[in-house]
Design a protein that fits this description.
mainly alpha; about 0% strand
């Protein structure tokens, strides 16, 4: 699998960081989180083509914070139960504020 230039992804994904300082090896978790939470379908396809579902799933399992939709999306695609993801267990152990 070839690693595409990160500039190939949508520009809104990495608006707050220097894209030239990111590398696939060192920042895979960050890239996966941004694509899952904010990416377009073309970003997802590019990530899937370049990293593969297994690497994406293992990176997503380590994330502390992931949008609920993104969590259920990657859980369904990878066929890994949602309760095995770190973000799921952290959300369960941290009760939300009361909403009056």
């Amino acid at each position: 699998m070839t690693k595409p230039d990160l500039a190939s992804f949508s520009s809104h994904l990495f608006w707050d960081v220097d894209i030239n300082s990111l590398t696939w090896e060192d920042n895979l978790n960050f890239i996966v989180q941004r694509v899952l939470d904010y990416g377009l379908i073309s970003d997802w396809q590019l990530l899937l083509k370049s990293a593969g579902l297994e690497k994406i799933s293992s990176a997503a399992m380590q994330l502390r914070d992931l949008d609920d939709r993104s969590l259920w999306f990657i859980s369904a695609l990878s066929q890994i139960p949602a309760n095995e993801f770190r973000c799921y267990t952290l959300k369960q152990s941290t009760p939300p504020h009361w909403n009056f």
